[in-house]
Structures are given as C-alpha cells and as structure tokens.
Specification:
By secondary structure, this protein is mainly alpha-helical. The chain is built from nine helices and two strands, in the order H-H-E-H-H-H-H-H-E-H-H. Helix 4 runs antiparallel to helix 5. The two termini are about 35 Å apart.
Length: about 150
C-alpha cells in the first residue's frame, strides 16, 4: 500500500501540489478486493492464478514459468535465460534505493491489517490476480513484455 501511494504521488505531482487522498485510495482498493472475494465465493470453480508478493519480488523467470504453465503455454529457454541475464545485470538498488514510510501516507500496520483482514484471511495475502482467458488474449496484452525478454 505505501508503494502504491508513492507511485500515485509521482503521477499526481506534475498536475497539482495537493497530495492525493490516501484514505480514499485505500478504501477504493479494499472495496475492489472485497468485491473480488464475493465473486470468488459465488464462483469457486473460476480459474484464477494467485500470485504472491514474494513471487513478484523473486526471480522473474520463476514467476513467468508459473504464469505460462497456468495458461498451458510454452516458455522458451531463451526467454528464461534473457530474464535471468537482465536481472543479473540490473540488481535491485542498482540506481539507488527507493525509500518511503507508511507514516508518510497516514498508514499504520494495525490499520492495514484491520482494513485488509478479510482479503488476507480468504486468500493468504495474494498480491495480484490473473484471470485465465485464452492464450491469444494473454499474448496480445503482454506482447511488449514478452518481446523485451525474448531478445538477447
């Protein structure tokens, strides 16, 4: 949540000196995620891949493999190697650290745990949802990213 607030600050800054309403951003996110829960409870057979935060910050090749397997699509070894090469050449904090604090956005661990409790209880704290569609839609939507890692 703090990183989302920081990102929104960055997008908002060129247009206004007024900070975004972080409470409203958090409330909107909670509402959207809780609606996701209601849909999942009504349609438990819906084919959804849960991607967890630890996977997002982990090795890209591992996450890409998981996603491609979910869609029953082949992932070329060349693409996996390119992802690994890019990550080795661009380690975290290569260009400096990115620092922010929850308090900068009027957020506290207690408040976030309270507000997102139903979501984390239901899902075990997944970070991102990808709903299965056909592989053609997935490829079209992700073709730029796929091309980036397909090149040496």
């Amino acid at each position: 949540m703090p990183s989302l607030c920081r990102l929104l600050d960055t997008f908002h800054a060129p247009f206004s000196d007024t900070k975004p309403n972080y409470e409203m951003i958090k409330a909107g996110l909670v509402m959207g995620l809780e609606e996701n829960l209601r849909v999942r409870q009504r349609l438990p057979a819906m084919n959804i891949l849960d991607i967890y935060y630890r996977e997002i910050i982990g090795a890209s090749a591992d996450l890409a493999t998981k996603i491609y397997q979910f869609f029953d699509m082949p992932l070329r070894d060349e693409s996996v190697q390119n992802m690994r090469h890019w990550e080795a050449s661009n380690p975290i904090h290569k260009l400096g650290t990115f620092r922010y604090d929850m308090a900068d956005y009027q957020l506290t661990p207690t408040g976030l745990n309270r507000d997102f409790r139903r979501i984390t209880n239901f899902c075990g704290a997944p970070f991102l949802k990808i709903r299965a569609r056909n592989s053609g839609d997935f490829l079209r939507e992700n073709s730029r990213l796929a091309r980036r890692f397909a090149r040496p």
